[in-house]
Amino acid sequence: MKPPRIDAWGSAQLLASALLGAFLLLPVVGLFATLSWNDFLGGLRDPLLLPALRLSLVTTSSSLALVVVLGSLFAWRVARNPGRVSRWLEAIAQLPAVIPPAVAGVGLLLAFGRRGLLGAWLDRHGLALAFTTPAVVLAEAFVSAPFFVQAAIAAFRRVDENLLVVARTLGASRFRTFLRVGVPLAAPGLVAGAAMSWARAVGEFGATLLFAGNLTGRTQTMPLAVYTAMESDLRAAQALSVILVAIAFAFLFVLRRVAAGAALPGTEPRGA
């Protein structure tokens, strides 16, 4: 049997795949391949590591919880109520994805800083957000929310309307229908969106730097620690980068397994 003939179109696909795959993979390979074991161990002893790692885990978990809770209700409203208002809400949810992170940081500062639109009122009541740990959470939530919201909207739109009607006719409230029918059916999409949202929050740099600053143990997350280490020791910055990449890969791998486990036979909506 002759092997399948590769035409020009197939060759173009193979070439494009190879070029883009190599381009995306080489920087990650470079991080690992050019770092010796001794340099990596030295990076683990860097005083910037533990405070930044602890803060990143706390703030990204907090921002993810905020985004998932508010974003799920937001996405449900948009997905189940088509119309002009929902289209505007969806456009608003996409806005942070196209705003440069530095611009987002300036905007957050002008909104929540001591002289900002809402920050001035908060400051009069003794609540200062800028250059604090909560500011890191807000910056991460702002830049990462679109990734979850868009995935959640798409997942909720695939939920069969007939199943929701049946739940309502059986006496379930709108909230119970959302929680017991909508969320389980949309779970794989929600988990995938949460994974992308968390990954974006972990890597957030620009908005955090401008709105929260770079204070060790208070607002210095792992990307900011890498930036600080770069000023004095490239190998330390490389070691911190390797740790950050490894954590992100591990978390995404776990979430992908969870998403795959959630997509069991019989859980897909009939209208999908």
Class from helix and strand fractions? mainly alpha
Helix segment count? 12
* Main sheet summary: none
Low-pLDDT stretches are: 264-272
Nearest-angstrom radius of gyration?
22 Å
Q: List the secondary-structure elements in sequence, H or E.
A: HHHHHHHHHHHH
What is the fold's blueprint, element by element?
Elements: H1 8-33, H2 37-44, H3 49-80, H4 84-98, H5 101-112, H6 119-124, H7 133-157, H8 161-169, H9 174-202, H10 206-212, H11 222-230, H12 234-262
Helix pairs in contact: 2-12, 3-4, 3-7, 3-9, 4-7, 5-7, 5-10, 7-9, 7-10, 8-9, 9-12, 11-12
Describe this structure in words.
The chain is mainly alpha-helical. Helix content is 76%, strand content 0%. It has helices at 8-33, 37-44, 49-80, 84-98, 101-112, 119-124, 133-157, 161-169, 174-202, 206-212, 222-230, 234-262. The chain is globular and about 65 Å long. The two termini are 39 Å apart.
Short note summarizing the structure:
The chain has helices at 8-33, 37-44, 49-80, 84-98, 101-112, 119-124, 133-157, 161-169, 174-202, 206-212, 222-230, 234-262.
What descriptive keywords fit this protein?
disordered C terminus, 272 residues, globular, 12 helices, mainly alpha, single chain
